[in-house]
Every structure is written in structure tokens, then in C-alpha cells.
Amino acid sequence: MNTKVKEILIVILFLIAQTIIYIVGGVEKSYIHMDEAYSLGLASYDKVEIQDNEDFYDTWHTKDYYDDYLAVQEDEIGEYSQVYENQKNDVHPPLYYLILRFAMGFNVGHFSKWPGVIINIIIYIFITLFMYFILQKLLKNESRVKEKSIILAFISSITMASLTNVLYIRMYALSTLNILIITFLHMKLLETKKLDVKLLILIGISVLAGVLTHYYYLFFLFMLYVIFAIKYIREKRYKEFAFYTLTMLISGAISLVIFPYSIKHMFFGYRGQGVMDNLTNISQFLMNILLYIQKIDHFGFNSLLFFIAVIFVGFTIYKVNLSKNKRKKYKRNEFAKMIVLPTLFYFLIVSIASPWIELRYVMPISSLIFVLVIYYLYRLLNSIYTEKNTNIIISIILIAIIVSPFIIKIEPESMYSDKKEIVYRMGNDLNVPTIYFFKSENNRFLDDILLFATVNESYIAKDAEITEENIQNILKDKDIENGIIVFINEGQDNDYILDTVKKAMNFKSSEYLKRLNACDTYYFKY
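User: That's the sequence. What structure does it adopt?
Assistant: C-alpha cells below.
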């Protein structure tokens, strides 16, 4: 067996192992976040919000009513225009939603998590491959480069941040891939000493895909552009700089021709205005950075980043105290610098600009952060010890990262294993008439739409006056022999509602079931 075939087989084995882990995670995924519901609805429904339907509130609906929002229906197969229209009226570009819409066409008529999860599993095969290509360039002066690169690429793809990215039915996995592709192409560009039109065309296509996936991609791209602009100008490679800049401009222009509403989203929409406001408010900047570092620690390093930082500081102090003749000298790595600056810039800007402190906003760079931390730790250790001892220490750290979720019980943020029981029960033994007493000023209905797609009958009582008479009217002619389920969202007096429902229908007891994403749930029975 020749070396190339052996390399390909090893890579395939790691990708199979990774895919099995993702499928197990997909099986365990038990619930969806409201933004995942938005993904499904924006890709399949004829409007952004199901709540905008005139018949949404104060009417009994079957589960099919909600499935219509979460799934492509028979009469909608082949229709894609609403995807573009919905994204025009929302806050994101359309590429991911078009891909999701295509995948949802294979599961018609009812909700399924699998189209979205399978898309991300496929995307992550390419993410791991591009991370493998990036690491080979990053580690090119080390021994056994290919082995180290595939192992580190694989581990970066099974951290809790990556697993969350796979299981989260949003555009962030695709955005991660876009960032890795543009990073790899710029590494190739860094090696190129003359104008390479084919490479520039690939960069242009990659930029187009990135911009049409998520606007935060532009933060990363901007710093890459600055690095290469400075490089070309310093080296007086003005022709290459002109063609490089032209490539960026053409890609941007094409993206605007395809989706001109990007301008409105970024500069005039509520999300864009929110970003601008945050960029001018630095009072929370340091706090946001610390909170995001906590997110990266917990999910990107499985809660071992502080431990790695202590090791790094300790060995740095040890190195400073070593005599100069005992230290190995490392050549400056231009590839590392090229990755660090855009990654750091993206992290800092997102820390200011993101509307909430959420892992999802930094998921596109979490794998790069992971490999950069391990890479610089490896370099530090290798400047002190033999390669064998360095490999042993790094291996121990990587093994600790892999096993720590099993010890301290970390799971992907989007798995929702704690919701598994209530989803099952509401679709089976608790499949009884369900009322949601809904305060509309706290509108996060989509956070819990999945349960309404599992029960046969449900009613959304919007800003209802809670009286015995009104409750009796809502439940008139309903079969409540086996009880009812009540949902209550924020801003209401739960105890008063529970007491009124019990008196109105003469229920003997009420059982608290579960705190869901946006509301509390109760089961009333005789």
C-alpha cells in the first residue's frame, strides 16, 4: 500500500468515526431552539412568523397546523421563491436556507430534525478536511505532519462547540466551512509569488458563498484583506494587489446583485442598527470578552482552557529561566500570524456586536481557536523538550479534552436531552387538549412550537383575561376526561392562573411538568 492511499484511508476512518459520533448526537437531540424553528419556517413557510396568521390566536388547532410551519408540504415541493422572500423580510442572507429547503424536500409533511442535522454532518466532513489541509501548512516544519494534522483536525471537530454546531439547525456550520475555506485559500495565496488567476477565482467564489451565508463572515474577511493589502503594498506587488482587490469587489457586487437586501439588513435593519449601537458602547466590552472566553472554555475546550492556560504560563516562565543554549529556536510562522489576526478580530468584534452572549456567534471560529491554542502550546513545549516528550504532554492534554465531557457531564448546547421525556409524553400519554396562556409582549412562541406539533389539539390564548368563565368557554365541547396541559410564559401570575383553571373545571390536582425554553408547563387531571 503506497503512502498516499494509506493517508486517504486514515482520513476516511477518522471521518467515519466523526460521522458516527454526530449521528449518535442527532439521535439524542430532543428539542429545538426558537432560531432552529425559524430556520425550518423560513425555509418552508410563506411568511416569517406563523404568529402573523390571522387565525393563529384564540382558535383550536391540530398539530398539522404547526407542522405546516416546520415542514415542506406536498403542494410546496419545488417551490423556492418564499425562501428568498422570507430572507428579504428577516435579517440573514439566503444561501443556507436554500440548502435547507432542498434537504427538507426529502421529508415531506411533518417535522424532522434530520434534514438540518444531516446537512451539518455533511458540511462537517468538509470542515474536518479543510482543517486537515490548514494544519498541514501550519505544521509543515514538524515531523509526522499528516498524522498530527488529522488527529488534531478530528479532535477539533468533536469538541462540544463542534457538536453543538452540527446539531444546531442554523447556518453556523456552513459559515464555519466558509471561514476555513477562505483561510486555506489565503494560505495558498501566501505561498504564491506571482499572479494566480485560478486561485483568485476560487477566492472570489468562496467570498460570495461566505457573504451569502452570514454577515459576520465579513469581520474575518476584512482582516484577511487588510493583512494581504499591507503585504502587497510593502512588497510593491501592485498588480497582484489590484487583482486581489478587484476580486473582492466583484464578489461583493455579485452578492448584492443576488441579494441587494444585504445593505438594508447590515445598515438599516434592527439587527444592523443593534450592531452599530453596540460598537459605540464599550462599557460592556471587557465583560463580554470574558463571557465569550467562558463559552469557548466550556464548549470549545470542554472546560479545560484554564488548565491549558496555567500550563502555558508555567512553561513560559520555565523557558525564560532556561539558559539560551538549551532553548530551541523556531522560525516565524507566517501561516499562524495570518490565521491569528482575523480570528482575534472576529472574536473581538463579535464580542461587541452580538445581540446576546451566545456560543453560536463564535462557533464559526471555535475550531480555529482550538487548533491555534494547541499549536502555540506545542511550539512552546517543543522549544524546551524533545519532540517525544512534547508529543506525550500534548497527547495527555488532548485525551483529557476528549474524556472531560464524560466526567463533568457536558453535552452539546443544542441537544436538549433534558426535554426528551416531555416531548415523548406529550406525544403519547399526555396527548390531551393543551392551552397556552400567552403574554404577547414576551413572544418566544417558536421556542416551544415543537410540542404543539406533537399534540392533537391546542389553543393559544393571547393576553387573555383569566376568569373561570373564559376558561370554561375555551374548553367547551372538549374531551378533558384525561385532563389538560397548560403552558404559561413570562410576565404572568402562575399561581393565580393555576388556581383559576382548577376551579373552573373542577380539577382535583395540577402537576408541574417542566420548565421549557420560554414557559412553564402543568398537567391538570381529575
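Residues 43-112 form one domain.
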